[in-house]
Amino acid sequence: MPADTAEARDARQALTALRGEVAKAVVGQDAVVTGLVIALLCRGHVLLEGVPGTAKTLLVRTLSRTLDLDFKRVQFTPDLMPGDVTGSLVYDNRTAEFEFREGPVFTNLLLADEINRTPPKTQASLLEAMEERQVSVEGVPRPLPDPFVVCATQNPIEYEGTYPLPEAQLDRFLLKLTVPVPSREDEIAVLQRHAEGFDPRDLSQVRAVAGAGDLAAGRQAVRAIHVDPKVTGYVVDLCRATRQSPSLHLGVSPRGATALLATARAWAWLSGRDYVTPDDAKALARPTLRHRVQLRPEAELEGATPDGVLEGILNTVPVPR
What we know:
Blueprint (H helix, E strand, L loop, with lengths): L5 H11 L1 H5 L7 H13 L3 E4 L6 H11 L4 E5 L6 H5 E6 L4 E6 L6 E5 L6 H13 L1 E4 L2 E4 L5 E6 L12 H4 L4 E4 L5 H12 L16 H12 L5 H16 L3 E3 L3 H17 L7 H12 L4 E2 L1 H5 L4 H11 L5
Parallel strand pairs: 1-8, 1-9, 2-5, 5-8
Antiparallel strand pairs: 3-4, 6-7, 10-11
Helix pairs in contact: 1-9, 3-11, 9-11, 10-11, 11-12, 12-14
């Protein structure tokens, strides 16, 4: 299917309207909403990082409502077991047989709240489902619904009692989005809404403006977006530069380069174009790559950050003309 058909244009219009609808409940997070839509178009998962109280849970709940998708939330805790996420076999006294009881992972949009608070075994069970898009119990594979996207959250300032995700598992997330504290004007707007009676538990004022059909049409259109060989080379050069950076202990893998190309294509389509530009890659480089690099200890002591290192690379790698 070409990137610019009537069906694709309708899907783009519906998905673009999401931002306005989400804004009825969440103020000032348009960039994060766009990132989540890009992840849905790429069938990728998202790591949301932000301090408590920045509406991460409300944001994902509202997005699921505007897309008319099934939504479930799991609060990750140190005593959470893999079966609590994926489901398990339960003995039925009436039939004298074991039956599979689905866990919360069987949904369209799963919010994994504070994923770094649960032990590696439970983290791994979720990440396996993310990668394989199925759950296997007693050798029987059970496919997950489509679409299936995990939005995992973590707190960037509180590390006591946490189990940080290993680099190999972080690489499974398509994007790492930073949820900022709102600006002064946006925070005033939040308080005014609450003073007028806004209840974050009541999303009745938010309506569905898109659906699974729009996502499917959008994905097909994104696959038809043209990528010039020069742009492909630019994406590879950006990722290779991270492997040679003196500030980084770990650079971006080829999987990361593939992810950057995919998110750049989705952004190009959302922007109304049927081709990718180097600026598309630059725009998505930080959210797509920041969690795939690891700073050297000495660079960290000097105050370097992944975003800062990536910014330097974006400024030095030649842009194709």
